[in-house]
């Protein structure tokens, strides 16, 4: 932004992510109040501490009108998409966040969105932690990059440790962060 930007041209809107493609570096938001789609650039999302966001995730943003339409200039909050009526995958067994351990720092080893899963390592521990794409979606994320720092809450499953919640580490290390959000 530059000094010529008029703060009155900015407004806070809530809505949901129509789609976001980390490879393209952008996506679009639909405002609750209606109107044209709002551009969400990857840099704005990164300034919030996330590299991706799940389709249909709730989002609160500051927008500014430009000659090409509205675009997000700041992300204020992101909430996980509403759950589908589809049954959860068997990997989740009967776990819920109450059974998960505390939020721990981790680094993504690899994640393949097309396969629907990947692995991360908790700092100081060589054990792989399984991350399913459904957990990312429920956490409000769409993808992870190798080497990305994240926060996770995990449980021990039949086949090893698995994530039940994944957050951007910047958001998780914020003292005001709440897993209930």
Automatic annotation (TrEMBL):
Pfam families: CSD
InterPro entries hit by this protein: Cold_shock_domain (IPR050181), CSD (IPR011129), CSP_DNA-bd (IPR002059)
Transmembrane intervals: none
Domain CSD residue range list: 103-168
Name of this chain's protein: Cold shock domain-containing protein
